[in-house]
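Example record

The entry below shows one chain as it appears in the dataset: sequence first, then structure tokens.
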Amino acid sequence: MAPQCLHLLAVISLSMGVLCAFAIFAHILGGHRQRMAVMNVVWPVTALYLGPIGLWAYWRIGRAASKGTDTRSSTTKPFWQSVFVGSTHCGAGCSLGDVLAEWVIFLSGITFAGSVLYASFLWDFLAAYSLGIAFQYFAIVPMRHLGFGEGIKEAIKADTISLVAFEVGMFAWMALTSKFFFARPFHPNSVVYWFMMQIAMIVGFITTYPANWFLIRRGVKTEM
């Protein structure tokens, strides 16, 4: 059983993430839907793991991209904000894929090379990559008016490096917590497990940010 203080910290952190996500979702449903439809999902998911930082980012950046906002008098947003939004977009697809895969692995008892951790790496990546490309597809196609095949091709081109960067950071934290920090592993039916995954997603966001900076600066990924 996890130490009581760690359990309490996990409950607080996860609760803050849920509350921040709910606040964003309520604001969006209250007449502030994003011009890019996929961002209506991206912003609440981002707040689930970034918590108050995700809420602050939505309030600072996301509100300006809602359909009801007059952009005629707006100034061009700083480059770091474009990179931040691109990183949240990548992170949301990865996070949803990771959550889905973790539950499937836990409920099915799947292992890879005799290891649950290796199975997590494999299936988390496959699920994250699939959803990440889907998220990128629904961002690129409306912006550039592409057909299905071309949209998939451009989504893979734009998101692969940033997605791998996110998963590398996330997997590094998962490996550290699994091998070094705790005497025994936690499971998805534990709040401490999801607290560790929340931190892993934050680390993934940190590692994907410079990748998105590079991709957007080079024109490989379109500013959102």
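Notes for this example: Residues 148-181 form the longest helix (34 residues). The CA atoms of residues 151 and 195 lie 35 Å apart.
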